[in-house]
Amino acid sequence: MKTYKILAAVVVLVAAVVAAGSLPMTGNVASDRPSIADVPAGDVQEIAMDSFVVFADGKPHPQFSVKEITVTRGDRVRFLVNTTSGSHNINIDEFNVHAETPTGQVTVVEFVADRAGEFVYYCSMPGHRQNGHWGTLTVVEA
């Protein structure tokens, strides 16, 4: 009985944290585009990546650990961005994705890949994109 009370308390706590918005999430906001809720849960493409800084020739070179991602049009895409060093964010302009990625945390970002093409995901901190902190998201037709 004690285990059930603890489990119930944990579930309530997790629900409260998520409801409070502690997980930075972005997605489509335009009303003419599908929302996260419109895509079946089975069509989730989850991509885990690190965001970090390496030094070469004494200069910082911020990076994502994953440089190329391919998903199918209509997929719900979930990025799990683990920032291990530095101050970063992640952006995909065409999907209205803009999220801070605090160091020492995993930031969850979800959106629907509702159009085919090649799109750049990048960090918009000054100098980061220019120094290699970007990758390519390719969305292919089914």
Describe this protein with a few key phrases.
1 helix; three-stranded mixed sheet; disordered N terminus; 142 residues
Which helices and strands, and how do they pair?
Elements lengths: L1 H18 L24 E13 L2 E6 L3 E5 L3 E8 L4 E5 L4 E5 L4 E7 L4 E6 L11 E7 L2
Parallel strand pairs: 1-4, 3-9
Antiparallel strand pairs: 1-2, 4-7, 5-6, 8-9
Ends apart, CA distance between termini = 49 Å
The count of β-strands is 9
Number of helices: 1
Provide the β-strand percentage band: 35-45%
Oligomeric description of these chains: single chain
Describe the structure.
The protein has 142 residues and is mainly β. Helix content is 13%, strand content 44%. The chain has one helix and nine strands; from the N terminus they run αβββββββββ. It has one helix spanning 2-19, and strands at 44-56, 59-64, 68-72, 76-83, 88-92, 97-101, 106-112, 117-122, 134-140. Strands 2-1-4-7 form a four-stranded mixed sheet, with no helix packed on it. Strand 1 (44-56) and strand 2 form a beta hairpin. It is globular and about 45 Å long. The chain starts with a helix and ends with a strand. Residues 3-34 have low confidence and may be disordered.
